[in-house]
């Protein structure tokens, strides 16, 4: 159960900006739930020992979406707008169950959840408002488990030999570029423009753009690339070539 919000120290403008993030978080968590649901189905033939675990995470991600929507509603944010079309487009690119399993494990679970975990950690670091912090901590605890599931599943896939390594490397290369454009690039543009960032927003769970950029590159360099390398993947090549494919 979440603690009651404590908002007296914040202005209406500060609250309005910060609380707008919760519907977006809800939509992203539901997107993740749909991805895990598809992964559970695909893995039944490609990686059956992980099927039940992927299905369990799909249910947890639905819980995250509901939590984010609840927090937003209690704070006066707009209702989330859910759109499954991007997920359907993503899945359409990899119709074969084995290819789909590998692609989603690399991009959405191992790399994606590792970076997500780093973002939630950074958000928790500066958040002081009790209800917001409790919600972030709840999701963060699950994200830490989800990223470990990703690396466990990826290790099983990497055991397939040279062909599996090449497929993993190719997917990782694309994922690293996409993640950088989705997460770091908007914050870099914010910083380049010199836009003002109200410190109160960080207390309400919004990551300062500079800290967001730092957290992203730290996650890539200290967590993602070393773990890829441990599996025999040429991680540095994947990172260096991320815009050459």
CATH topology: Ferritin
Task: Count every beta strand, where a strand is a DSSP E run of 2 or more residues.
Answer: 0
- Sheet with most strands: none
What is the rounded distance between the termini?
Answer: 46 Å
The SSE order reads: HHHHHHHHHH
* Number of alpha- plus pi-helical segments: 10
Quickly give the structural class.
mainly alpha
CATH class: Mainly Alpha
Walk me through what this model shows.
This protein has helices at 12-19, 21-46, 51-74, 85-92, 97-126, 130-158, 162-193, 199-203, 209-230, 235-240. The protein is mainly alpha-helical. Helix 2 runs antiparallel to helix 3, helix 2 (21-46) packs antiparallel against helix 5 and helix 5 runs antiparallel to helix 6. The longest helix is centred in the C-terminal third of the chain and has 32 residues, at 162-193. The radius of gyration is 18 Å and the shape is globular. The model has no long low-confidence stretch (mean pLDDT 96).
């Amino acid at each position: 159960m979440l603690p009651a919000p404590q908002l007296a120290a914040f202005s209406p403008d500060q609250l309005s900006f910060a609380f707008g993030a919760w519907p977006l978080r809800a939509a992203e968590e539901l997107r993740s739930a749909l991805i895990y649901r598809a992964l559970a189905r695909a893995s039944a033939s490609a990686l059956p020992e992980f099927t039940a675990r992927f299905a369990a995470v799909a249910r947890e991600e639905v819980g995250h979406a509901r939590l984010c929507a609840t927090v937003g509603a209690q704070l006066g944010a707009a209702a989330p707008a859910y759109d499954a079309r991007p997920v359907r487009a993503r899945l359409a690119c990899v119709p074969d169950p084995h290819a789909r399993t590998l692609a989603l494990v690399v991009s959405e679970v191992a790399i994606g959840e590792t970076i997500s975990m780093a973002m939630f950690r950074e958000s928790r670091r500066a958040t002081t408002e009790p209800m917001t912090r409790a919600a972030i901590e709840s999701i963060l605890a699950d994200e830490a488990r989800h990223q470990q599931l990703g690396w466990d599943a990826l290790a099983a896939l990497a055991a397939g030999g040279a062909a599996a390594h090449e497929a993993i490397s190719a997917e990782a290369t694309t994922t690293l570029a996409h993640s950088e454009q989705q997460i770091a690039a908007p914050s870099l543009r914010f910083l380049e423009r010199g836009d003002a960032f109200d410190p109160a927003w960080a207390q309400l769970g919004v990551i300062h753009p500079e800290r967001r950029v730092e957290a992203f590159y730290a996650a890539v360099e200290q967590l993602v690339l070393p773990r890829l390398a441990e599996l025999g993947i040429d991680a540095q090549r994947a990172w260096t070539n991320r815009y050459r494919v």
